[in-house]
Amino acid sequence: MTALDLSVITHNLNYLLVKGLGLTIELTMICAAAGLVLGGVLAVLRLYGPAWLRLSVAAYVNLVRSIPLLLVIFWFYFLVPYVIAWVTRAPNPVQLNAFVSAMVTFTLFEACYYCEILRAGLQSISTGQKFAAQALGLSQIDVMRCVLLPQALKSVTPILMLQIIVLFQDISLVYVLSLTDFVGAATQLAQQQNRLVEVYLFVALVYFVICFSATKGIRHLQLRLANQ
Amino acid sequence: MIQIENVGKRYGEFQVLDACTTTISKGEVVVICGPSGSGKSTLIKCINALESHNCGTIVVSGVTVGGKKTNLPKLRTMVGMVFQHFELFPHLTILENLMLGQVRVLGRDKSEAADKAMALLTRVGLSSQADKHPRELSGGQQQRVAIARALSMDPSAILFDEPTSALDPEMVNEVLEMMAELAQEGMTMVIVTHEMGFARRVSDRIIFMDRGRIVEDVPTQEFFNAPRSERAREFLSKVLHS
């Protein structure tokens, strides 16, 4: 066994961290933000919508949560071009940009998890709060927007953030769509230069440092929220 | 101003309210009492449509309550409510608690709402707490804020759902005093309470309920001096001699 040669990393830091990790972080932030908005809407619909809508949302959420993420990514990437072609009556499959495909897939997937977390948060608020808001004459939307959602969001913020860390790790799956996220960039580099051990060790270390400190930060936040 | 006629409500087999009929006039202070589970809270929650009734009619100053066509914002601005567990909004400051309804429902602009809120807080002796959050206040203070919040909407009547039941004994009086003041100023009040001393001193009329029915609906003195029904006599002997 030869000694570790770290020059492969130091010479390619820009490629690994700016291009690779940059894309991972970009995707994480976009999908977390879009997923939260969609998840919030799904949670409200699942709790307070008309029966048919509640059932549809529940079915969607349960279906997506029962399928491995990798499968959803494949599915979306390979199947949706045919669906779009069918809908628009185009003669050939309409190939989606891999980035857009990943973005939409992760958003739809994460929204299901956020939906369930927010739903739990909303259910943990006493009916008295809803009554008090209604008794002031607030409209249904205002009751939700001004009274229930802010409280629910606050109580589940730590769990939501942990879920975002999981998302950050899961984004690595986009390498199957040949996107150069952090893992994708590392894989290319490792194979090109035949330095698998060094590169993958470095990738693991970076993931560990980011996720571990983020988790610590969330724990800190959780304690502060609990003390309020 | 509040007409309740033949109102009934059932949860499955359980008859919560059974043919309740009464009228509350402007400026009147009415106490609703009775054993727990007798439907007192449910009845007052039907008045501002927090609970729905299955039959009978409720009319508040010309607004018919019940059904999808109820003008809820109008009804609920006219009738304020104070809850057993205060139900201040914990994520908002005291001042914001008093501004929310004014801004979102009455459409007042923020500075106007804040002025009104501060005036009310001064009135309940809590203006120094305006920027705190509800959890930083004692139970008695929170309930006084809740009363101020109800007043911020300029209601013509206020419903009180056991306003002192969740308070430590030493804080009950500060809240009752405030309510007595409101009564003196001519506010129409419907109060569910077990504080019979307060009821005797402040209310004009007592409604005694048992198993979803209004058993007695008489002037306060008459209720305490000569209760007509056996159930009311029994109830009074228990609460007055405990």
Could you characterize what this model shows?
Helix content of chain A is 81%, strand content 0%. Chain A is an all-alpha fold and 228 residues long. Chain A has one domain (7-227): MetI-like fold (Orthogonal Bundle). In chain A, helix 4 crosses helix 5, helix 5 (98-123) crosses helix 7 and helix 6 (127-135) crosses helix 7. Chain B has a single domain (2-240), classed as Rossmann fold (3-Layer(aba) Sandwich). Helix content of chain B is 38%, strand content 26%. Chain B contains nine helices and ten strands. In chain B, the strands form two sheets. A six-stranded mixed beta sheet of chain B has the order 6-7-8-3-9-10, with helices on both faces. A four-stranded antiparallel beta sheet of chain B has the order 2-1-4-5, with helices on one face. In chain B, strand 4 (55-60) and strand 5 (63-65) form a beta hairpin. Chain B is globular, with a radius of gyration of 18 Å. The A-B interface holds A 126, 128-129, 131-139, 142, 146-147, 150-151, 154, 228 and B 45, 48, 50, 72-77, 80-81, 83, 85, 87-91, 100-101, 104-105, 133, 135, 149, 153.
